[in-house]
Every structure is written in C-alpha cells, then in structure tokens.
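Weekly puzzle thread! Below is a chain. First person to post its structure in token form gets bragging rights.
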Amino acid sequence: MNSTNSTQHFATTLDSPVGALSLAATDHALVALVWRRESHAAAFELAVESPTHPLLRETARQLHEYFAGSRRKFDVPLEFRGTDFQRRAWSALLSIPYGETRTYRQMAEQIGNPAAVRAVGAANGRNPISIIAPCHRVIGMNGDLTGFGGGLDAKARLLSLEAPQLQLNSQTMAG
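Winning reply:
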C-alpha cells in the first residue's frame, strides 16, 4: 500500500548500540527505520518530531528489548513503500529467522525470481525499515558481509548479537 503525502507522519531519533536510528510512522504503521533520514526523505520531510507518539514509543521499546537480547521478533505494524518488486523483497526479509542468514540468491529464489539476485541486493539497499525487516541477515554466497545502510560494522554487530557463534568472513569486515 502506498500512502499519499497528505498522511501525517511522526518522527523521532533513537540512540542504539549501532548508532542513531531515525524512525518515522503514521498513526497506523511504521514506515521508516533508517540510519540516514536523507536516504528516505519522503518519510521525514513533513514529519512532526514526536518521540511520545504511541507507535514510535512502542517501536523504540521493542528495539531496546532486541538490543538487550530479550526480543527476537517484532510486532509493530509496517508499511513498505516502494515498487511491487521492492515490497516483495522487503516482505521476504521478514521470513528470515532470528540468528540465521540467507544469501541474495536464496532471497531471489524465495520471491520467485532466481535471476534477480542483483535486483534483490538493490532492493535491500533501499530497505526503509532496517533491523525489523532484517536485511542485515542477507549475506553474499561465500559468507561475505556486503553493503548495508548502517555500514558493515553495524551489520556485523547485529549478526553477532543474534548469533554470536556465526562465522563471518573477516576479509569483508576490514573494508
């Protein structure tokens, strides 16, 4: 579902172990959880700063529980805004279990388009609801950490939080 710009948006910033996170929501759904507001400007340009908005407070509470290790699944309403393909790719992220990873190829196959590996990667790069739609759980075929909106260090920290035993390819950690 794509909302029009006439829908009131609310925003706040949350400090987290992986940096400052910007959240945007309507009265009905979370529409953005990103490191850089400018990467998803439409969700923030007319948003009213409102750290006490009920949906933003609930999202912040669940994120705190996640970072504390006591939450594995989020249950806030989400509204993905993008192309049909992007929304399919982002929705597929929600099926990756906590502490597990998938490759871009596996995600392309899951959405029924095995040739769309690069397009899935591009969609993940534009994921408007990071962490909750866990694009950090998608890695390269050889176990490499690849692009992530919050940076590879944040991706590694999120994966380590969820699965400390996970063996990540350290070559990509350096760059």
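Puzzle host: Confirmed. Bonus trivia for everyone else. Strands lie at 10-14, 21-25, 30-34, 48-49, 102-103, 138-139.
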